Amino acid sequence: MAFCEKCGAELAEGTKFCTKCGAPVSETAPAAEQTAAPAVEETVTPAAEQTAAPVVEETVIPEAAPIPQGEAIPQGAPIPQGAPVQPNSGDKKKVNGKLIGIIAGAAVAVIAIIVAVILIVNHNKKVKEQKELEERRTINYFDYVSVTFEGYDGYGEMNIEVDTEGLIDRMYKGMGKKRETASMEISNKIDSLRYSIELDKGDYADLSNGDTVVLQLKYDDDARKSTKLKFEEEEKEFVVEGLKETKKVNPFDYVTFEITGIDGDVDIDMKRNEEDCDWINDVGFDHDRTYDLSIGDTCTYTVYDYSKEYVLNNYGIAFTETSKTITVDKADKYITKAEDLSDNNIKAIRAAADKAIADYKDSNKYGKFTYVGMYTAYNPEGSSWSSMGKSNVCLVYKTVVTDRKNKKHALFVPVKFRNVLSEVDDTYEYDPEDARISTNYISGLDVWSWVPGYLTEDELKKEYMDDKDYTYTISGGLKGATSNIGSTTEETTAAGETTAAGETTAAGETTAAEETTTAA
């Protein structure tokens, strides 16, 4: 086996040039093989471990001038010295192929990574730009709404203010424009949207601290779409706070109502208790009918709305009641019949009538006056200023009058009271001056032309009980009496004396035990 003296490559028999390095093969190759083999083995080492740097430095044959393969080099021609010792060509191709594959794979991977990074960066950029666009187009309307509460707890009010100019600027910004340079088309779209916006405030009134109110945003959605703007919140809740403390008061605790008058003619008068508070005079009251009232009628007093607001805002006082109904449950009443007179009423009216009779008797020649009964006359439509009034009560007395011939005649003397009342508190005071003793001309009686009486009861009733507009009742010893005294009959003698039981005789004496004689 022969080996190349130059590179140590194995040579086939008969080969004239080394197939690896191209060096000519000498004729003494076998000998060289025997003697040079160890030397070659000593010098063939991996390229990385070779220390033949001095040999390489002597002469370096450029790779651009390789020795042509297959051409015979003339024998005896000098062999180029200093040619570098090349590694095994087969191993080099294998190493270079793997390296190239690794490098190519790495390059592809790097390129893929670069492409991926570029794609990710571009995607993130687009996402960021899209996010920024969405944020720019999204508006929170309530950022431009200011809600405050004022007034007093339980009666508070909500105030809403909108920063319209700030909202408009934000709309232009959302469309990527400036108000000063935006086109007319953009301005018209923004105007259409903002003019369509309204805030539903709900029906909130008389608010208290801690209450919640909800405001809802409403707008024309077509107008919104034309701008490509969006609203972040469609509604927002607010908590009521900051209202002043309120004092609760019933205004009717600081007024009094006086009911005066007679049934059918009752008046209601309201008086403010000014000494109890300083704000009651600032309260105005409305009312319905306060006069010509009857028992059972009502009158309602109502606080004016402006008064409620004024007192609340100036005194911090809120009214717990704003209306009050007054019922006429009792009142003085006109006497409609004898039974309406209470015992106290009868005593008082009798005392006044007795006093009037006594005063009249002192100036005239009369006998004793004896009370025999009464009649009443009532007309609900009558005038209290008429001669009979609405309610007329006559107390009838009997007496004796002596004429000029010294003859005695029995007389029925009426003492009339107008507008007699049954009073609420059952206290009665009748002045004798209210008692009317009317004089009457009696034909054929030889006495003074006018006397205060009638010879018969019929004549008296004819005079005093002939008005058809009145309703009459009779009691006591008079004819048709309904009281427990019972009725009487009378017969007048030729001498003018009466003999009926309980009546005054010609001598002016009384015989009935139940009769009462006035003081002489």
Q: Determine the fraction of residues in helical runs and give it as a percent range.
A: 25-40%
User: Number of helical runs?
Assistant: 9
| CA distance, first residue to last residue | 198 Å
The poorly predicted ranges are 28-77, 480-520
Strand order of the largest sheet: 20-19-18-24
How much of the sequence is in beta strands? Answer: 15-25%
Coarse structural class: alpha+beta
User: Rg from C-alpha positions?
Assistant: 70 Å
Q: Main beta sheet: strand number and arrangement?
A: 4 strands, antiparallel
- Kindly report the average pLDDT value: 78
List how many beta strands DSSP finds.
24
Shape: rod-shaped
Layout of secondary structure:
Elements: E1 2-3, E2 10-11, H1 29-43, H2 53-58, H3 89-137, E3 138-139, E4 145-150, E5 157-162, H4 164-174, H5 184-196, E6 198-200, E7 212-218, H6 221-227, E8 230-231, E9 235-239, E10 247-249, E11 255-262, E12 265-272, E13 285-287, E14 298-303, H7 305-315, E15 317-319, E16 323-327, E17 333-334, H8 343-361, E18 370-378, E19 391-402, E20 408-418, E21 421-422, E22 440-441, E23 450-451, H9 457-464, E24 471-476
Parallel strand pairs: 3-8, 10-15
Antiparallel strand pairs: 1-2, 4-5, 6-7, 7-9, 11-12, 13-14, 14-16, 17-21, 18-19, 18-24, 19-20, 22-23
Helix pairs in contact: 5-6
